[in-house]
Amino acid sequence: MKKRIYFNEVVTRDGFQIEPTFIPTPEKVALINALSGCGYAKIEVTSFTSPKAIPMLRDAEVVMGEIERYPGVVYTVLVPNLRGAERALEANADELNLVMSTSETHNRANLRMTQEDSFAALSDVIRFVDGKRPITVSLSTCFGCPMVGDVPAASVVAWAKRFADLGVNGLTICDTTGMAHPDQVKQLIEALQLALSETPLTLHFHNTRGMGLANVLAAAQSGIDRFDGSLGGLGGCPYAPGASGNICSEDAINMLAMMGYETGIDLSRLLPIARALPGLVGHDVPGQLVKAGLTTDLHPAPIQD
Questions:
Q1: pTM of whole model > 0.90?
Q2: How confident is the model at residue 115 (pLDDT cuts 50, 70, 90)?
Q3: What b/e sequence results for 3-33 when a residue is b if at least 16 CB atoms lie within 10 Å of its CB, and e otherwise?
């Protein structure tokens, strides 16, 4: 048996944030409750950002207050600033996820501030929380920025180390617009592991150019045991041109399970939830497993005349 892999489901935050139609609050709560019973290590429930910035997640407090908390599942939320941190603590989030970009151009577009200003603001959040909750930091565009191109690995490592030095509990390395390829993934992971041997790393891939699962496999083979994924492959960054959906959770989980990795996910419970997703969002979704079925789902041979 290969090593254990831990999955973080992000569909109700990253997946829903760019949906054109508001997903009703009771349906979000029901979806999170259903996902909680599937074996996920974490569920990123929502974002405590301004409702004007992300109107699809304007019900963050209500959702956090109404979900059922399953033992062993970490309910994490994205927090952009001090006010967001205050709201997250009041809502009893299990973990706070902070975000900034390793691309100056993308950071200005996404967060409307320089990288140094972002680092200072997030440092304030870390000091404010002061150990009351675990904190992770998501670093965007680590494998390339759609506005400036390559982001040097040295820059990614430098930002990662600055946050690790502040004592954060983990770092998420994000391929925000699906620009990564497997060799690049292996090289960056190696550099990060050398620099940050004590800091847990999560990898967050998008499938914009069809290399999402290949990148997951490259990361797993490089020793990464934590991944973000989005049910059905929903999601994308509203401030990154060309950013289509995240890797599809069920597709990635199935691939790794078939290769002998233990994911902790019960696909027999997850797949019916994934099949209902198009009806919830009102359109088809990119995921493939729900369309083809498991490889163990055999079919009768055609009747011969």
A1: yes
A2: very high
A3: eebbbbbbbbbbbbbbbeeebeeeebbbbbe
Please report where in the chains the tokens 């691309």 appear, as a residue: 103
pLDDT tens per residue, range 121-158 = 999 999 999 999 999 999 999 999 989 999 999 999 99
What is the radius of gyration, based on Cα positions, of the chain?
19
**Catalytically annotated residues:** 237
Q: Is the pLDDT of residue 10 over 60?
A: yes
pLDDT confidence of 245, banded at 50, 70, 90? confident
Q: Name 76's bridge partners.
A: 44, 95
Residues near 264 by beta carbon (within 8 Å), at least 6 away in sequence: 4, 5, 6, 7, 39, 40, 41
Closest CA to 143 of 97, 199, 198, 186: 186
What's the pLDDT at 304?
80
Question: Whose CA is closest to 61, among 77, 80, 43, 82?
Answer: 77
